[in-house]
Design brief:
The protein is an alpha+beta fold. Helices cover 27% and strands 29% of the residues.
């Protein structure tokens, strides 16, 4: 299959092209039904002769070209309808009935606040042009009305408030929020790409857009909400997220402070917070891409907390100098795992109930996780005379000095420590 992408230098186009390359080159094997030979990228810098050649040889067309922030409103019609007409006429010239996808907008519904939108009018004209083309030629046409498109590579200070917020907050620049209660519906680029792959496979999600105040199956519509329908005229991406501007800014400010708080956001797969965080860090300048961590250093070595999570505790790095013993404490219910990644050590545990002692030789040459059992006092000893012992430590909860659940107790003689988590 040869794929033509118009508007390939734009936000959606660049993301789509790079992901089409992954399929073409065998890096993405999740879409075995899609076989790509050539990807034709068309931008404003290309000539009509090049477009003509692309149209003669393509098997699928993504028409992402358009205008959304012109200096002159008259450019809306030329950019969103004029080029589309040229594209379709060129396909007809070659008798090419390849499926064609059109990137439209919810503004084309001309409903609600979009009722007099010049941009929406131009997009509606473009939609009508494609529907007529389908009737005339029999070619498959997939018309998508997109809400706010967000994700990596969105151009800030252009037509995306979320992109502007991400960029400005990442660069410590001010933002303006006139009404934090305004709710946005957002379609993240990764979810859009998956839907476009579905479209290429011939099974896009289809829908209709009932008019404002129209009631269908007991549901009152606003003219901007897709009604899933297998025979729908339009197509839509089913995975979107809604959030107020206030909530978006709150999360972005939290992400901004993450190097200090080391609190990891909710990274549940598919969650809004995870997707927004991924978008935010894509705007980080070089000086913020790496950040220092607080090392608690003494004569025994160091202890550094790497990250905190709301639901899964914390991860830390412990470095013990040669011959040093750390730990010598026990917990009622707190959970810990020690993973030695460098050096040679010994982990000892003693049951406070039975007195049973367990010992584990640990080494960076054979990485394994050792669980610290509740009710067992435990330690870790660096057995080397020359090398540091480096241990990754996971604890199920963030250390709270007011409720530490950490009680000093030697495993075998010696003095208790109890400071490993501080």
């Amino acid at each position: 299959m040869n794929v033509l992408v118009t508007g390939s230098a734009g936000f959606v186009g660049r993301n789509l092209v790079e992901n089409l390359k992954n399929i073409r080159d065998g890096k993405n094997r999740t879409r075995p039904a899609i076989h790509i030979d050539k990807i034709y990228e068309y931008t404003r810098s290309h000539t009509f002769e090049q477009l003509d050649q692309f149209c003669s040889d393509c098997d699928f067309v993504f028409n992402l070209a358009g205008v959304n922030r012109p200096k002159d409103p008259a450019e809306f019609k030329a950019g969103n309808c004029g080029f589309a007409s040229t594209l379709l006429e060129t396909l007809k010239k070659h008798g090419n009935k390849a499926p064609v996808m059109l990137s439209s907008s919810l503004q084309a519904a001309l409903a609600g606040r979009f009722g007099t939108s010049e941009y929406g009018l131009s997009k509606r004209d473009g939609e009508d042009l494609f529907f007529r083309y389908a009737e005339e030629t029999g070619a498959a046409v997939y018309v998508y009305r997109f809400p706010n498109l967000v994700g990596k590579w969105v151009r800030p200070n252009y037509n995306s408030a979320v992109g502007t917020f991400c960029s400005n907050i990442a660069h410590d620049l001010p933002i303006t929020v006139n009404d934090p209660g305004v709710e946005l519906e957002m379609l993240f680029i990764e979810d859009l790409i998956e839907e476009l792959f579905d479209c290429m496979e011939g099974h896009p999600h289809r829908a209709e857009y009932p008019k404002a105040d129209e009631v269908v199956d007991g549901v009152a519509y606003d003219g901007l909400t897709a009604r899933p329908c297998e025979e729908g005229r339009y197509c839509y991406a089913p995975v979107t997220h809604k959030a107020t501007l206030g909530r978006i800014v709150e999360l972005l400010n939290r992400f901004h402070d993450q190097p200090t708080t080391i609190m990891v956001p909710d990274l549940t797969p598919g969650s809004f917070e995870k997707k927004l965080y991924s978008m935010y860090i894509s705007y980080l300048p070089k000086e913020k891409t790496a950040y220092p961590l607080k090392m608690n250093v003494d004569a025994r070595g160091s202890f550094t907390e790497l990250l905190h999570t709301a639901a899964a505790g914390q991860v830390s790095i412990n470095i013990s100098k040669p011959g040093i013993t750390k730990g010598q404490h026990w917990h009622n219910s707190k959970l810990e795992q020690f993973i030695v990644v460098s050096g040679h050590g010994l982990i000892q545990m003693r049951s406070l109930l039975t007195g049973e002692i367990r010992e584990f030789n640990v080494s960076g040459e054979k990485i394994e996780a050792v669980q610290m059992l509740p009710g067992w006092t435990h330690n870790i000893i660096n057995l080397s005379e020359t090398e540091d012992l480096v241990t990754v430590m996971w604890c199920n909860e963030i250390f709270d000095p007011k409720h530490p659940d950490t009680f000093g107790e030697p495993v075998i003689g010696g003095k208790s420590d109890g400071t490993m988590e501080k």
